[in-house]
Write a structure and sequence with these properties.
The protein is mainly alpha-helical. Helix content is 72%, strand content 3%. The protein contains eight helices and two strands; from the N terminus they run H-H-H-H-H-E-E-H-H-H. Strand 1 and strand 2 form a beta hairpin. Bound molecules: protoporphyrin IX containing FE.
């Protein structure tokens, strides 16, 4: 089947959603692993070194960012199109069918995907603007291995010292958890990997994955708010 025909079918779009979703989940695993360096009690040296190492990847970093952006966009467009075509199909059936009992667990979860997805769609650009671009202001700088790099530790610590930002992050991470829990098994189902024998184990794995990932991200703002003083910019370096 040509890539155009795959994209035009609902099944094809679900596969695109699954593959891009898994790619985005992998990004989040790597992102959280790097962010765990924020817990190192060294005034930000380890985290700023990690930021500097990322920057040292040069052109490769831009290729990865481009891929990430493409995955993000394909995931959203496919999700919106699958959602609207399902809605249209449901509206067509509505006159013929009456519901036996309440909505199924699956359909409640699928509906929640669009809500949690929209929350993440608002969160991601705001987050990149805040931490990637320091809200448009020149970022604080620090010396690492003899060169001046962005003091991302100070940026994170300063932001997570503000109650409004902490509440926003903690709230959004709860939505992220629900999105990941459903997304995990939904992706496996779309790729045909859901053997009924394994269904309970896959549901459980999705729950644990979402809990670890969203829980890890959620602890960071709380940790900074309650346990870390705002550092003096430029002190989280190695010289
Ligand atoms: C509390 C948790 C989080 C912290 C402390 C955090 C921290 C950061 C920082 C410091 C950067 C900028 C890195 C740099 O400029 O070198 C960044 C970039 C980014 N973050 Fe997060 N992040 C968190 C959660 C998330 C979540 C949950 C998502 C997605 C749902 C996310 C998606 C991104 C993306 C897409 C970028 C841009 C990557 C790039 O430009 O290379 N982050 N994050």
């Amino acid at each position: 089947m040509s890539s155009n025909r795959i994209w035009q079918s609902t099944v094809g779009k679900k596969v695109v959603m699954a593959i891009t979703g898994i790619g985005l989940m992998l990004f989040l695993v790597v992102h959280l692993a790097g962010n765990l360096l924020l817990f190192v009690p060294d005034g930000g040296v380890a985290f700023n070194k990690y930021g500097a190492a990322l920057k040292d990847m040069g052109a490769l970093l831009y290729v990865i960012r481009g891929g990430l952006l493409a995955f993000f966009l394909f995931h959203i467009v496919a999700a919106i199109q699958v959602y609207t075509s399902k809605k249209r199909a449901r509206a067509g059936r509505y006159a013929l069918e009456t519901s036996k009992g309440g909505p199924s667990k699956l359909s409640v979860s699928s509906k929640s995907m669009i809500v949690t997805g929209v929350v993440l769609l608002i969160f991601v650009p705001l987050h990149v603007w805040m931490f990637g671009m320091n809200k448009g202001a020149p970022p604080p700088m620090v010396m690492i291995d003899g060169s001046e790099v962005k003091d991302i530790y100070t940026m994170v610590a300063t932001s997570f010292n503000q109650l409004g930002i902490v509440v926003f992050y903690v709230g959004t991470m709860l939505f992220l958890g629900f999105h990941l829990r459903h997304g995990f098994w939904s992706a496996l189902q779309s790729l045909g990997a859901m053997n009924p024998k394994w269904t309970p184990a896959i549901y459980a794995a999705g729950f644990v994955f979402a809990l670890l990932l969203a829980g890890g991200f959620l602890l960071l703002p709380l940790y900074f708010f309650f346990f870390v003083d705002v550092p003096v910019a430029g002190t989280g370096g190695d010289m």
